[in-house]
Specification:
The chain is an alpha/beta fold. It has 2 domains: about 5-195, P-loop containing nucleotide triphosphate hydrolases (Rossmann fold, 3-Layer(aba) Sandwich), CATH 3.40.50; about 205-355, Rossmann fold. The protein has 14 helices and 11 strands. It has helices at about 5-15, 25-45, 50-55, 70-80, 95-110, 115-125, 140-155, 180-190, 205, 220-235, 265-270, 275-285, 300-315, 340-355, and strands at about 60-65, 90, 130-135, 160-165, 190-195, 215, 240-245, 250-260, 260-265, 290-295, 320-325. The strands form 2 sheets. The protein has a 6-stranded mixed sheet with strand order 6-11-10-9-8-7, sandwiched between helices. Strand 10, helix 13 and strand 11 form a beta-alpha-beta unit. Helix 7 (about 140-155) packs parallel to helix 8 and helix 13 crosses helix 14. The longest helix has 22 residues, at about 25-45. The relative contact order is 0.11. Mean pLDDT is about 90; it is low at about 205-210. Bound molecules: adenosine-5'-diphosphate and magnesium ion. Magnesium ion binds near residues 72, 133, 134 and 163. Adenosine-5'-diphosphate (ADP) binds near residues 69 and 74.
Length: about 350
Amino acid sequence: MSGLLENKYQELVTLGRIDYDPAQLVALQQLQKLQDQLLAHAEYKQKLTLRKWRSPPTCRSLYIFGEVGRGKSMLMDLFYETCPIEKKRRVHFHAFMLEIHNFVHQWHQQHDSDAMSALAQHIIQTQQLLCLDEFHVTDIADAMLIVRLFGKLINLGLTVVTTSNYHPNELYRGGLQRELFLPFIKLLQENTDTIYLSGNKDYRCSQQSAVNTRFYFPLNEHASEFAQQHCQQLTNYAPMHAITLQVLGRDLVLSAACEKISMISFEELCVQALGPSDYLAIASQFKTVILTGIPRLNSELRNEAKRFITLIDALYEYKVQLICTAAVPLDQLCDTDDVIDFARTHSRLLEMQSARYV
Ligand SMILES: Nc1ncnc2c1ncn2[C@@H]1O[C@H](COP(=O)(O)OP(=O)(O)O)[C@@H](O)[C@H]1O
Ligand SMILES: [Mg+2]
């Protein structure tokens, strides 16, 4: 091992912070190769002599996919941290999409011209490398924005490193008007190297030396006592009150909060039609969320389950501590195959109870 990323990985193994995992090596090597190319590119830009004789080194984008808990995000984060270039950005896919929607909205209030070209120009001026965690597409509006924006970004020479639970061919599978999304899949396949992280170990499951007391079931008379006790301990018996968060110019009222702690019911968060922007606002506002009354998620609760998945993604991304009361144990929480992506949520909920996460 020799590059910055590979050295960092080795160092963490030596310190006993992570396990040496042969299944991660291919991805590690590819990421290292890209890191070296990015460095060569930076050097090329600085040295006039190089520019005279050679064309710029290519920095091919990478798309890393695989099952949950295999270390995709960890490797990408290590890559990002150790990558010594200035114009770089790492962002969760939900947050990125939200920014795009906001940009388009604001742009069209002031201009008639194409918002995507303006956004692509803005991105390329501030970033040479974009690391996008958890790429997945579930609705047509996102799908259309992605097709248009990424076509431009790749043409402008942005290098993108993406993690996803899906092979490119599986993206937006079964989605409305999927044929309009297919050009993006073609673009991905022509312009990025795809890496399958094939390990058969879900590290999250193995971290389950969990503090099981953070997930209480069933929803009997002790459940609310459990939630109250955690709440009182965390707030030192300070009273909870309703709080209003501003989300994209709207008011989001939550019934019980105290400083960085909130106690919110499943009903309040996932039965009402809230969306990613609301969940991100909550995740960035609180250090601990006590989420009460999670029902067993069956096919009748598909929309609620979808929101729950987005909520957990946001809380996880912001490393929010989560305490729950639920109708059933965690491994029985989702009762149907109709809810895609629940494997990730299950894996995350497990990790969120582990000693390491806490
Ligand atoms: N080689 C490893 N040794 C120990 N823990 C690891 C290793 N790879 C990943 N992990 C841990 O496993 C958990 C899941 O990894 P993550 O990168 O989030 O998975 P994915 O993005 O593939 O779902 C994280 O807490 C991560 O730090
Ligand atoms: Mg991940």
